Structure formats: C-alpha cells, structure tokens
Amino acid sequence: MNAMILAAGRGERMRPLTDHCPKPLLSVGGRPLLDWHLARLEAAGFERVVINTAWLGEAIRAHVAGLAPTRLEVRMIDEGDHALETAGGIANALPLLGPEPFVVINGDVWCDLDLAMLPREPEGLGHLVLVDNPAHHPQGDFHFDGYAILRDGDAPRYTFAGIGCYRPELFAGLRPQVAPLAPLLARACERRQLTGHHHHGEWWDVGTPARLHALDARLTPD
C-alpha cells in the first residue's frame, strides 16, 4: 500500500521556528516529525511514500536523501513556490500514488496509531481517523456514529486526526490546483461515503510552538 505525507505548508503559526526550518523537520523526542511518520509507515509494511514540498522544500529533499536506506521507497514531488493545499497536493501526486487506495498523513501531527490497522479497501470513498477534541479545537470536525462519518446529527462530534485512507475517486475531476480537502470530505459525508474509527491513543496537532515544546517534553526521556 502507498502513502503520502503532506509537507508543503508554510507553517505560519509556527513562526519564527519555520522561517528557516520546514515544519516536518522540527524535532520532537530527538527526531524530526517526518522521521516519526516514515518509521511508522515502514513498520506497518507500506511500500512507497510520496512527500510533497513547497516552502523550504530543498531542506526536506536533502534530509530525505541523507536517511539510511529502508524497505520504504520515498518519492518527492515539488509544488513550486506556492503550496497547493491538501486536496490540490494530493491530486498532484495521484500519478505517483497509483490507482489503489492510499493513506495520507498531515506532516504536522504526531500519533501513536498503528497504521497497519487502516483499511486497505475502505468502504465508500475514504476512512478517517478521529480523536477526542483537543482543548484548542473543542467543537470538533465531524459527527460519528461509530461507523460512518456524518456532517450533521445527534451523534458525538470528534476531531479529524489528519490521517485517512482514500480512494483516488474522491479526487476525480480535481486538477493539480490550490484546493483544500475539507469540501471534498464534506460532500462525501453528505453522501454517506466516509467511514471512520475513533483512535483512543495519543495524538498531537503540532500547530504552535507551545504544542511543539509540550510534545517534545512528552517524548524526551527524563
């Protein structure tokens, strides 16, 4: 199974840390966020990972080139000076991801999820990992009835973890252009074409320097 790590963002909320270091290369627990993702993908048996770049992409490419060889094939795809956002970046990478379902991971999250448990053939158009709503996002993103992702209803509401498995058909007709993922997921929700599961383990959205430092403290041995 193939995967993609979204690594093209500017990381405005992380400035000044990201002025000279791309967000996926920020370190927690003694290793860059990107390396945590690559290690989990390899452990889960993935065969290829595509990493998109834009802001300070040359630093990410140099870092990946310097990693020790593994069974995981790493392919890079550059979006130029301006990132295509989530859906646009994925659409741009579809030729490298292939015709089968694939996993996408936001480069600025940290999660202890065993990626091998994600469905290789999701029902509908995709399967999302959901987590409890963090303090900085108490309203959540989606309703969830224990199986299907719902846009409205009385079911509890959870936060999208930035980890999902998608069929290429979710991005049908979308050209490589600036486009967010949220509208595509919302439409799939309305058609009941998304499933999901609630991850009860650890998950961090490393979106601010304070959360980065907190995660680093959590992962650094005493």
UniProtKB/TrEMBL annotation:
Stored InterPro entries: GlmU-like (IPR050065), MurU (IPR054790), NTP_transferase_dom (IPR005835), Nucleotide-diphossugar_trans (IPR029044)
CDD domains (UniProt xref): NTP_transferase_like_1
Lineage summary: Bacteria, Pseudomonadati, Pseudomonadota, Gammaproteobacteria, Chromatiales
Xref: Gene3D superfamilies: Spore Coat Polysaccharide Biosynthesis Protein SpsA, Chain A
NCBIfam families xrefs: NAMPUrTaseMurU
Coiled coil: none
Keywords, comma-separated and alphabetical: Nucleotidyltransferase, Transferase
Pfam families hit by this protein: NTP_transferase (PF00483)
Top-level division of the source organism's lineage: Bacteria
Residue ranges constituting the Nucleotidyl transferase domain according to the UniProt record: 3-117
Natural source organism: Spiribacter roseus
Protein's name according to its UniProt entry: Nucleotidyltransferase family protein
